[in-house]
Amino acid sequence: MALLDMVAAERRRFADLIESLTPEQLASPSLCGAWTVHEVSAHVVAPFAGRPSWFLPLILRSRLSLHRANAELARRIAQRPAADLAAELRRNERNPFSPPVVGLFGQLTDLQVHRQDIRRPLGLPPDLDPERVRTALDFVVGRRSLGFGSRRLRAGLRFVATDLDWAAGDGPEVRGSAEALLMALTGRRVALPELTGEGAELLRDRSVRVRT
C-alpha cells in the first residue's frame, strides 16, 4: 500500500473514532498532557481546519513557542463539534500535507499514536493495522523522526514486537506488542509496564531522565 493510501486510511479511522465518542468521552483527559480527547482530535485536524491568519498571532502570543502555539490552536479548533472535525478529516483524507523533515511518515505515525492517546485512557482496546504500525515503527527508530521521541531513549537497545514480524536496534532486548513499543518510543510512559526483556528496565529508567 502506498504511503498516502496508508495516511488516508488512518484519517478515515480517526474520523470514525471521533464520531463514535460520547460528549463525556470527548471531554475526558487524553494521554497528551492537559489536552482533552476533543482537543487531541482538533490537533489532528489542525493542518486543514486552521486559518492561515491565525498562525503568526498565535506564535507571537506564545513567545515563539511552537508547542504552546499548537496547544492554543488545538483549543481553538476544539470549539467546533466533533462531527465537524470528523467531516474535515474525511474531506482531506488524501490531502498530501507533509510536515517538514518528517513528511508523510510523520503524518502516518501521528495519526496512529494520537488515536491510542485517545483509546487508552477511555479503556478502548488498541486497533492498529499491522502494516501501518510496522511502517510507523520503522520511522520512529529512524533518523528522520524529529519530535517523535528522543534518540537517547532508544540508543543501544533492541526492540522486538511480540505480535508481528518487526525488530530494530542492537543491544539488550525490549519486547512487547507493536502498540506498546510505538507508544513507549514516542514518550508515552503508560506503556512501559507492558514491556519485558533485559533492556526494559533500562528503558524505564531512561524515560524518567530523558525528556521526549
UniProtKB/TrEMBL annotation:
It comes from the Bacteria. Keywords: Isomerase. Signal peptide: none annotated. It comes from Plantactinospora siamensis. This is Maleylpyruvate isomerase family mycothiol-dependent enzyme. It holds the Pfam family MDMPI_N. InterPro entries: DinB/YfiT-like, Maleyloyr_isom, MDMPI_metal-binding. GO terms for molecular function: isomerase activity. Residues 7-91 form the Mycothiol-dependent maleylpyruvate isomerase metal-binding domain. Gene3D superfamilies: dinb family like domain.
